[in-house]
Design a protein that fits this description.
The protein has 215 residues and is an alpha/beta fold. Helices cover 52% and strands 14% of the residues. It binds adenosine-5'-diphosphate and adenosine monophosphate.
Length: 215
């Protein structure tokens, strides 16, 4: 299966993608995770991306499109795209690459959440630096305070999850990313899922739609 998960920052894309790949077995291609790995490795791409990421701005389209098309090529069994495409130019770049390869996206899911719910989700987010598991200090607590359930590593807060950077990321979403929904509505069916619910309920709603495709 080839999927795209859309939604504002903090909508729960990463959280739901991890559960989707566990159930259906495709690759999880998160542009944010790939960029953070590039930064950690000290690569040229990571160095070019870091200023944009720390401010909450988008990394330039040409860098992102090349990075994500390369990742897609390494996922022959299918994938779920998380955080990409984030501009209409990125969606066009993806479409061109898919057309060239004779492939198509099976479903696009849009996780909907009001702006008011986003700040507390992002400032309360904690991640495991070892396995990438994502928690929340109130909504999705680890079994032991501030320790990953899977590997006991100490959880960290992302530098771009501070209130000022979150505000800029939300602004960027409305100015540049929301238009991607309109772009896809012209040619594809977008499945809207209410993500302002309990995490497990959102997962159940997503699985219900994907099971129908898978079967
Ligand atoms: P995204 O990948 O869309 O930026 P995440 O999956 O990282 O979002 O979720 C952002 C934060 O919100 C995390 O701390 C996560 O635990 C929490 N979260 C995710 N889904 C929900 C939900 N349905 N209700 C409450 N909190 C959630
Ligand atoms: P995320 O992990 O999806 O919240 O992304 C973290 C940051 O990485 C964003 O605020 C951007 O700076 C950058 N980023 C991730 N994906 C993209 C993308 N598709 N286009 C441009 N920048 C991106």
């Amino acid at each position: 299966m080839k999927l795209i998960l859309l939604g504002p920052p903090g909508a729960g894309k990463g959280t739901q993608c991890k559960r989707i790949v566990e159930r259906y077995g495709m690759a999880h291609l998160s542009s944010g995770d790939i960029l953070r790995a590039e930064r950690a490795a000290g690569s040229e791409l990571g160095k070019k991306a870091q200023g944009y990421m720390d401010r909450g701005d988008l990394v330039p389209d040409d860098l992102i499109i090349d990075m994500m098309i390369a990742a897609i090529k390494k996922a022959p069994k299918g994938y779920v795209l998380d955080g990409f495409p984030r501009t209409v130019a990125q969606a066009e770049g993806l479409d061109a690459a898919l057309a060239k390869a004779g492939e198509r996206i099976d479903a696009i899911i849009n996780l909907q959440v009001p702006d008011e719910a986003i700040l507390s989700r992002m400032t309360g987010r904690r991640s495991c630096p070892v396995c990438g598991a994502v928690y929340h200090v109130v909504n999705l607590r680890p079994r032991v305070d501030n320790r990953c359930d899977k590997d006991n590593a100490e959880l960290v807060q992302r530098k771009d999850d501070t209130p000022a950077v979150v505000a800029n990321r939300l602004k960027t979403y409305h100015e540049q990313t929301a238009a991607v929904i309109g772009y896809y509505k012209r040619a594809n069916t977008i499945v809207a899922i209410d993500s302002n619910k309990d995490v497990d309920q959102v997962t159940a709603d997503v699985f219900k739609r994907l099971d129908a495709l898978d079967g």
